[in-house]
C-alpha cells in the first residue's frame, strides 16, 4: 500500500489511514488523484485536515485539494476528494510576470522569462536548441498561461517531477514490447471516433506585397495542398485551411499540412495490464508506444500511451492508448489566457477597443495597404514606426488640371486662377468693378439702367405727383383695393387703372 499524508496550509501534517487512491497521469500534463477516506478513530486527526486547498502528499508529490464531498458508507462517514498536482497552483496563483517582451527568442529564453520566481527548473531536449519563434507583447500573465503559450508556439510536450520540468518534441519512447489479448491484458475496450476525420487540406503562407491587386491563390507567396491516401477510400473530406504568414517555403507549409490533417481515425484502447513485472513493463509510462495486438478487434498496431491510471493498492494499472484529450487544468489555462488577452483590449461595457490598448503601440506600416479616414485616425507624438520607414518621405502625386492628387483637379483649376504677388498676397482685378460703379452712378432712364432697372423707372414715371405734394403709396394701394372690393359687391368688374 502506497503511503498518503495530508498537510494543512499552515504546515501541519498527518498520515492518512483507511483510504483509497486513484491517480491519473495524462500526456497533456495533467496529474490528478482521487482520494476516498473513512472517518475512524485512527484516522480522526487526518480526516479533519481533508478540506479544500490543503495538500495531499502522495509518493513524494504534492496535490492540492480542489473539491470534496462527504458521503455515508453503511454506518460510517467518508469523504471523496479530487486534487491536482501543485504544479498548476504554483504557476497559476504564485507566479506572475508583469513585464512584456517582443522579438524573436528561443524556448530557453521564454521559459526563463515565464518561470522567473516560480522556483521551478527545466531541461529542454537537444532537438529544440536553436529553434526560435517571434512573439509580440509576451508576458503580463500568470506563469501557467505563459507556459501553455510556449508549448503551443514550439509544438512541444512536457512532463515534470517535483519542481523540475522536462520539455521535448515528444515525451516517451518507442518500446519493443507487446500488449496482447489473453496474454498480458484483460478487459479491453475499443472506441473509434471520426468526428474530425478529413482527407484533404489546403494552406496559405505569406501575402505578397501587391496582394490587393491580385486574386485567389496568386495573392500568396506560397500555397500548398495535401490529399491523404485515404481519400481513395472515403472520398474528399475537406479540413479547415491553414493560413499562416510565417510560411514562405512550400516544403515547410506542406509539412505543416500533413501534421495538421486528421486523416486517421481516432482509435482509443483501454485495458488492464497484468504480469507487468514478469514482462519488464512495470516502467512503462505515458508517451511510450507499444504494440497492441487484440485479435477479437482485428487490431495489430503500434499505439501511444496517453494516460496511465494507477492505484495505491496492488490493483493492476489501466493504460489508455491512442486518443489524447485535454483535461480541465489545461483547458482552464488555455481559456484563462485567451480571456486575459481579450480583456486587455476590449471594454466589456461598450464592446469597443480600450483607449489604453491603443497607446504606445508600434505599427509596421511598411507593408500596409488601404486608406485611413482623416477624421478617424490620429498619430500621436510617441508613435514608433518600423526601421527604415519614414512617413515624412511618402511620395504622393501632385494634382493638375487633368488629374487628382493631394487635391482634386477641379479644386486645382480654381486655385490656379488666383493671382498672388511676390509676398503671397492675393491680387484682385478691380477694373470691372470700377466700370460697374461708374455705370450705376449715371442717370437712369427708361432705356438705360442705373441704380435701378429700366423697368422700375417706367413704373415710377407713371405716378403723377403735384409739386410739393407728398404721397404715401401704402395708403394709395389700400384705397385702390377698397374701391375694387366695392365694385365687385355692386356686380361690376374690376377697375382698369
Instruction: Supply the helix-strand structural class.
Output: alpha+beta
Which geometry do the CA atoms define? elongated
* Straight-line distance between termini: 133 Å
**Percentage of β-strand residues:** 25-35%
Largest sheet: 13 strands, mixed
Instruction: Indicate the low-confidence ranges by residue numbers.
Output: 324-336
Name the average pLDDT. Answer: 80
Number of separate helices: 12
Number of DSSP-assigned strands: 25
Share in helix = 10-25%
Report on the structure:
By secondary structure, the chain is of the alpha+beta class. 23% of the residues lie in helices and 31% in strands. The protein contains 12 helices and 25 strands. The chain has helices spanning 44-49, 86-93, 107-115, 143-154, 231-234, 250-260, 328-345, 355-358, 409-416, 431-441, 454-461, 473-489, and strands at residues 4-7, 13-15, 19-26, 31-38, 55-58, 61-73, 76-85, 96-106, 121-124, 132-142, 157-161, 164-168, 174-180, 185-193, 200-204, 223-227, 242-243, 266-273, 289-294, 299-311, 318-321, 362-363, 384-385, 419-420, 426-427. The strands form 6 sheets. Strands 1, 2, 3, 4, 5, 6, 7, 13, 14, 18, 19, 20 and 21 form a 13-stranded mixed sheet that branches. The protein has a 3-stranded mixed sheet with strand order 9-12-11, covered by helices on one side. A 3-stranded mixed sheet has the order 16-15-17, with helices on one face. Helix 2 (86-93) packs across helix 4 (143-154), helix 3 packs antiparallel against helix 4 (143-154) and helix 4 (143-154) packs across helix 7 (328-345). The relative contact order is 0.08.
